[in-house]
Design goal:
By secondary structure, the protein is mainly α. The protein has one domain. Helices cover 60% and strands 8% of the residues. The chain is built from three helices and two strands; from the N terminus they run αββαα. A two-stranded antiparallel ribbon has the order 1-2. α1 crosses α2, α1 packs across α3 and α2 packs across α3. The longest helix has 23 residues. The relative contact order is 0.20. The mean pLDDT is 82.
Length: 97
């Protein structure tokens, strides 16, 4: 098997571990959600951690062990980055007003 595939699978397994730890032994499946204002979106659930883990494993790791670690930590880091990004004010010029 190609080394990059092994690294990607190891990173995805790290993302799976992160999902299991976060959800106390369960993995949230993808679902469609509607907010109170009527906006509908797809919540990817645990699939997001698998994708992030595989991507970070391929981008940063050289061995399956480091890829798994990258998969676990990358999902935590991505969540923190997204939380901070929500707090950044968007200039009125970019909002289309």
């Amino acid at each position: 098997m190609e080394p990059i595939i092994i690294i990607a699978v190891a990173g995805a397994s790290g993302g799976l571990v992160k999902s299991l730890v976060e959800q106390k032994g369960a993995v949230m499946l993808p679902k469609i959600e509607t907010t109170q204002d009527g906006t509908t979106y797809v919540h990817l659930g645990g699939v997001t951690n698998l994708i992030l883990g595989a991507a970070m494993g391929v981008l940063t790791a050289t061995t399956p062990a480091t890829a798994a670690f990258a998969g676990i930590s990358s999902a935590f880091l991505a969540e923190k980055i997204l939380e901070r990004a929500r707090d950044i004010p968007i200039p009125a010029k970019l909002q289309g007003h």
